[in-house]
Amino acid sequence: MLIVDIHAHMDFEEYKQDLDKVMEENKKAGVAVIINNGVTVDSNRKVLELAKKYDIIKPALGIYPVHCIDMSEQEFDKELDFISKQDIIAIGEVGLDYLKGDDNPHGDIHKDKMKQCFEKFIALAEKKNIPLIAHSRRAELDVIEMLESSKLKKEKIIMHCFMGRKHLVKRILDNGWSMSVPCIINKLQQLQLIVEQAPMTKLLTETDCPYMSPYPDIKRNEPRFVIEALKKIAEIKKLDVEEVSNMIYKNYQSVF
Ligand SMILES: [Zn+2]
């Protein structure tokens, strides 16, 4: 079994106590690659350290859209310059987030600033010619339009945990971009519909761990739980789980 997690946060507090053990267990369970997405200046440094320490962790650097708001333009540009000099597999986590909530107190009030930052990340992905892993929450259309007007190659765009409407899913697929399916697909019909719509060649898998565990009794998510996404995809596509895992691994290799 080859398990691919293209969107994880192993640098978060939740793994601080037992990361070595977690990594060992995940490797044993067949996890072949974890793309760790950075979300702040500090997080980006930690991601680079983890990628040095664990062979299956690959670094993606970015700034979570909500955190861009708290940075001055100077601070942001300095980090962008740092990221531009690193040997990384992708730009992520970047995008737009308009949903007001605990982790986004301002909602879409600062959306112009968020867009400016996202624009700069898109330009950096173009310059480095590496994939971009896009976060879009209640901002799906804006994210799609910005990516459509960019010069990024269609093979290099991945929509992570996309929860937008069906016609937008179609638009993403018509554009030839990839969609990454989180393991909570076992609970959410909206995600199952994406898998129905998408060709196997455009699917990737992820956790967004430590968040979004697929199990009601386990709070902390882990890359190996991607198995739940593989099982659901296999069921929807009427394929064998092993076959699905090989196909997703191939997709990973061709995108990254
Ligand atoms: Zn994330």
Fill in the keyword field for this structure.
single chain; 256 residues; alpha/beta; TIM Barrel; binds zinc ion
What does the model show?
The protein is an alpha/beta fold. The chain has one domain: Metal-dependent hydrolases (TIM Barrel), CATH 3.20.20.140. It has helices at 19-28, 41-53, 65-68, 73-84, 111-128, 140-148, 166-174, 189-197, 227-237, 241-255, and strands at 3-8, 31-37, 57-61, 90-97, 132-137, 157-160, 178-182, 203-206. The chain has an eight-stranded parallel sheet. Helix 9 packs across helix 10. The chain starts with a strand and ends with a helix. Zinc ion is lined by residues 7, 9, 37, 93, 208.
Q: Care to give the gist of this entry?
A:
The chain is built from 10 helices and 8 strands. It has 256 residues and is α/β, with parallel strands linked by helices.
**Into which percentage range does the β-strand content fall?**
15-25%
CATH third-level topology = TIM Barrel
CATH class annotation = Alpha Beta
> Which compounds are bound in this model?
zinc ion
Structural class: alpha/beta
| Count of separate DSSP helical elements | 10
Describe the protein's topology.
Blueprint: E1 3-8, H1 19-28, E2 31-37, H2 41-53, E3 57-61, H3 65-68, H4 73-84, E4 90-97, H5 111-128, E5 132-137, H6 140-148, E6 157-160, H7 166-174, E7 178-182, H8 189-197, E8 203-206, H9 227-237, H10 241-255
Parallel strand pairs: 1-2, 2-3, 3-4, 4-5, 5-6, 6-7, 7-8
Bound molecules: zinc ion.
